[in-house]
Write a structure and sequence with these properties.
single chain; alpha/beta; globular; five-stranded parallel sheet; about 15% strand; 18 strands; about 425 residues
């Protein structure tokens, strides 16, 4: 069995799970974002009368924090009331949390070999922790919270075998865009990563890759347990866990060998990702003017992202007419960046550093685009209307490419900017 099949077998009490099987499972971690509790009078009542396993449920406030309008304020009040009344395991509230997928990763809210569900589409991010994690629709997540169980149809798995090492100046976001360029959508499939190249990638880059595979339309996205992951978990918790690894005779729908040495800085053009990726150098040659540059989200709001941005912007200024918005992925990332001096460097360069929130990435607040504006972002999506106006254009790239573009005022190749600025 593959890694995902093993997790589904374990949580459903079966010996074997194969593609096409429908399994009813327990779930180890159920995450409810603040959006679960939004007013939906015309669709689905979201008042929970009771839950089966409150110790497995956490509420993570992230999509609109602090509340940017009355609708969010009402939703978050309802979330707090539910957590108090039903005894949820944890509430990560304003000032004490951050973006859901960053928090699951940095706090190890789930552990290797576990099954995770949330109402957010980028739940695949927990695959970096060797978890089978997937977003569910509102009806499914409420049913899961109430009963403690849900169902999945097991999918065929595509395995990406990574070899080689990333060149200098190339990051996890570039790997994702490279896979999108070479192999496109993996709809209806799970994705499994492995190979010696993966072991050379920092955990932050792996987490970005796992998060972004939602945009390949994948179901579960899983990465193996290895020494680097175990070191991270040991720094957070001494809880026991049981990781999964694929069987030697695991069956895959396809196996793709990808040499990381071939990956270059890449950019997805508006308004889609798959089939719409070019090299950063090629796009830079077009001299595309930008109005806004955004660094943040569950994909690229990590401490390493703020380190890269600060390194590139140290002693430089954001170009006239460009807004650079930086959103740390969590309160902990913000604090560590503050201690390291990154916040000061970015602010002196002309950036605005916000609190941790889905904010601009989700088009809710703290960086919404006007009609006709052009933005380059290290966040998760470049769909039409994702960050505000449907008449805005969104380019998707790594943090280094976004920071370089903010300096030049046009979409830029990060390599000339990185050449004399090694980043540890």
């Amino acid at each position: 069995m593959t890694m995902a099949e093993k997790v589904l077998a374990r949580r459903s009490g079966r010996t074997v799970v194969r593609p096409g099987d429908i399994v009813v499972t327990d779930v180890d971690l159920i995450v409810l974002a603040d959006t679960v509790f939004s007013d939906t009078p015309d669709t689905l009542p979201t008042d929970l009368l009771g839950v089966a396993h409150p110790e497995r449920i956490v509420v993570l406030m992230d999509h609109g924090v602090p509340a940017p309008n009355e609708r969010y304020a009402r939703a978050q009040r309802r979330a707090r009331e539910h957590a108090r009344r039903l005894g949820f395991r944890e509430v990560a509230d304003v000032g004490g949390g951050g973006i859901e997928h960053q928090l699951i990763f940095e706090r190890c809210l789930a552990l290797p070999g576990q099954l995770v569900a949330s109402n957010d589409s980028h739940t695949s991010a927990a695959g970096v922790l060797n978890c089978a994690a997937r977003g569910l629709g509102l009806a499914d997540i409420l049913q899961l919270a109430a009963t403690g169980r849900t169902w999945y149809r097991a999918s065929p798995t595509v395995r990406f075998e990574l070899v080689g090492e990333l060149p200098f100046g190339v990051y996890g976001k570039d790997v994702f865009l490279h896979l999108s360029l070479l192999h496109g959508s993996q709809e209806g499939h799970d994705i499994e990563f492995g190979g010696p190249g993966l072991e050379t990638m920092p955990l932050d880059d792996r987490a970005t890759l796992a998060t972004m595979c939602t945009e390949l339309n994948a179901n579960f996205v899983m990465m193996p347990d290895d020494a680097l992951l175990r070191e991270h978990i040991a720094s957070v918790t001494d809880a026991a866990y049981e990781p999964v690894e694929p069987d030697p005779d695991a069956e895959y729908a396809a196996v793709h060998v990808v040499d990381l040495a071939d990956v270059k800085p890449r950019i997805a053009l508006p308004h889609r990702i798959n089939g719409n990726v070019r090299s950063a150098a090629a796009v830079a040659a077009d001299g595309i003017r930008i109005d806004q540059a955004f660094i943040g989200s569950c994909a690229n709001g990590k401490l390493s992202d703020l380190r890269i941005a600060a390194r590139l912007l140290d002693g430089r200024r954001v170009a006239d007419g460009v807004r650079l918005i930086v959103t740390p992925g969590s309160q902990a990332v913000y604090l560590e960046a503050l201690r390291a001096g990154y916040i000061e460097t970015l602010t002196e360069a002309g950036a605005v550093v916000t609190n941790s929130t889905c904010g601009a990435c989700a088009g809710g607040h703290l960086g919404v685009l006007a009609p006709g504006e052009v933005c380059i972002t290290s966040s998760t999506r470049n769909f039409r209307g994702r960050m505000g106006s449907a008449d805005a254009e969104i380019y998707l790239a790594s943090t280094a490419t976004v920071a370089a573009s903010a300096i030049e005022g046009v979409i830029a190749d990060p390599m000339p900017h990185l050449a004399d600025r090694p980043i540890s």
